[in-house]
Write a structure and sequence with these properties.
The protein is mainly beta. It is globular, with a radius of gyration of 17 Å.
Length: 214
């Protein structure tokens, strides 16, 4: 299921066009100022997190990332970034290559909540992919959460989360407005992680209740 960087479904929202960040902002709404080189988006350390202007509820997300080579560093200081679904639920990006039993802070983890089922990491400087099927939380008109958010995540074509029910927002979320649409946010953790081929397909919230045989 690892989709190449050039294969965009016809109904996909191109989150990054490889040229500019016109549809991205900082957390405060100001213009995003990360670096773009040869169609690749690089975290600009100190420039802050960036997020899409698109707001999504249920969606399929594809993106590719590359951790820098930082052999002298360890743990959270080694190629750290993150992808926040709806700006609320972080999938960790980190150089965790070679770790036998990845934990809740390693690459592919839902940060602080779920460790990945397997270590699917490639070495630093290799392009890797995340594919995510995300179902947003369902809330009543009174704002009461009736169904938590759920996610299935593949890293490099390997299932690392299988329809997990998220406990709530992770550390660093943009807000706690669970049940409402939200952006895709990329984290500036001070390391020059690279991104490319980012797109999302909005999914219908439900299928038809009717069946009309032909």
């Amino acid at each position: 299921m690892n989709i190449s960087q050039t294969a965009f479904p016809a109904n996909a929202i191109h989150l990054f066009n490889g040229k500019d960040l016109r549809n991205w902002t900082r957390r405060d709404g100001g213009p995003a100022s990360w670096t773009i080189e040869d169609g690749i988006l690089f975290v600009k350390p100190g420039a802050g997190d960036i997020m899409t202007q698109e707001r999504l509820t249920d969606f399929f997300l594809h993106l590719e990332f590359r951790c820098p080579s930082m052999p002298e560093d360890t743990g959270q200081a080694k190629g750290n970034s993150g992808v926040f679904l709806q700006g609320r639920y972080e999938i960790q990006v980190l150089d965790s290559c070679g770790i036998v039993m990845p934990g809740k802070g390693d690459c592919g983890a839902i940060y602080g909540q779920f460790a990945p089922l397997a270590n699917a990491c490639k070495p630093p400087m290799a392009w890797q992919s995340y594919e995510v099927i995300f179902r947003g939380a369902r809330a009543s008109e009174a704002g009461i959460i009736e169904e938590p958010a759920r996610a299935t995540v593949l890293q490099n074509g390997i299932v690392i989360h299988n329809n997990i029910q998220l406990f709530g927002v992770t550390e660093g979320a943009v807000d706690g407005q669970v049940g409402k649409p939200g952006p895709i946010l990329l984290q500036d953790h001070g390391d020059p992680v690279a991104y490319r081929a980012m797109w999302a397909v909005p999914l219908p919230l439900r299928g038809s209740d009717a069946y009309e045989p032909r």
